Predict the structure of AB hydrolase-1 domain-containing protein.
Amino acid sequence: MTQSTSLVWLPGLLCDGTLFEDINQMMPSWVEPQCPTLASMPSMEQLAQKVLQDAPQEFVLGGLSMGGILAFEVYRQAPDRVKGLVLMDTNAADEKPEVTQKRDALVSRALSGEFESITPDTLMPVLIHPSRLQDKALTERIEGMAINVGLEAFEAHAKALATRPDARPLLADIQVPTLVITGKQDLLCPIDNHLEMARHINDVALHVIPDCGHLSSMEAPEKVGQIISNWLELNRAKF
């Protein structure tokens, strides 16, 4: 019997397992993907502890945006349990004050009763490529994720992002196969973030998806799914 490998996905802010549904269909048969519901905790350290508490003993770890940021913290806490990393549309650096300021303003709006309108009215233009803004099937799924995550988790995760540690010193210490993927037109986590990761991580592959924004796994699932599947097959012996 072929031994299976667990693939734990960590979603971005206001995202859930829907973020990975399409690409999961393309994973090799020996890979078992799962995506936990992230607890409403206000620090990356706490969130990582909870992920590790619920995760298999050994696993490949993937994350998009906030999920990638959280993946760094999970690896920091338990490098022996993480057998590979998939980092998508993310950022290894600590947060800039101006970013915190903008997000805090969104949280204030959400708390004052505007939560359901924030994703379609404010976030959507920076989440996906301009050519996809009229793709109703895509935008409705993105809006649905935000509603499902809810206001309490949004507020907590915003605090976790604002207070996160700088993961850049960790990059050179990552000793597992790592795949870095980004949309070329990602406005929230620009391409330079990913070039920096690729420069410092030892065993790394970098892929840039053309005509794609921040939510690459939903915008270009065929390309992203194939890249991840190929990378998993290539590194299977290391997992």
Observations:
- The beta strands are 5-10, 31-34, 59-64, 82-88, 178-183, 204-209.
- The mean pLDDT is 97.
